[in-house]
């Protein structure tokens, strides 16, 4: 048996922002509410977390919030994150501890995807943390305002290059553009079609259908981001997989609600 046995979408926060952040050249002045999702993937070979959400402290500590989200911080404003949205709380509802996670796969190092790393480490999570070499180098350059330096340093990291099998039936797919080393994840499912977790290669269904890049791309590489969307669509056609965008509220509401799972 390969691939996932169960897949849980985890709502780790919601975020209100200008739609043009998700769709290059479109939606300026339109405020959308977006889910910030992570995923717990159970396989016969262990448990994988795809992304880990935000750092709860930076949102709820007034000084940290001011430094990172206000007064010239990220420029995005702070997400809305509740106590129950923290990854350890999701795991506890399943009867699990952070030590029950074997691999953390970081699609990219932006604050809403990698922010929970330090908390997981502090809680005793010893999982391998997979990050692409190009992603880590770009984060360490300081050029990307959506990367918080302390989160990008919260290793040790298992540094990877290119595409590879994270576990049998779970494959890392290179989808750069939004960030230098952005990775999506292809997951074989036991009953339904395969799932392609797009991450921020496709925030919204609109990104996929219209092949429009996210608004923010590493060094303006919008064409590369569009190529990555087309790559995901070609893989989905070849394998009959479903592409799951990461910040689409209507799409998230169509998924099974935690603690229910997909299989």
TrEMBL record:
Tell me a Gene Ontology molecular-function term this record carries.
hydrolase activity
> What range does the record give for the signal peptide?
none
Q: Name the source's superkingdom.
A: Bacteria
In the UniProt record, does the keyword Cell membrane occur?
no
**Keywords on record:** Hydrolase, Metal-binding, Zinc
Q: Which cofactor is recorded for it?
A: Zn(2+)
- Is Cell inner membrane included in the keywords of this UniProt record? no
Q: Start and end of every Metallo-beta-lactamase domain?
A: 35-247
A Pfam family of the record is Lactamase_B
Family affiliation: Belongs to the metallo-beta-lactamase superfamily.
Q: What is this protein called?
A: N-acyl homoserine lactonase family protein
Lineage, top ranks: Bacteria, Pseudomonadati, Pseudomonadota, Betaproteobacteria, Burkholderiales
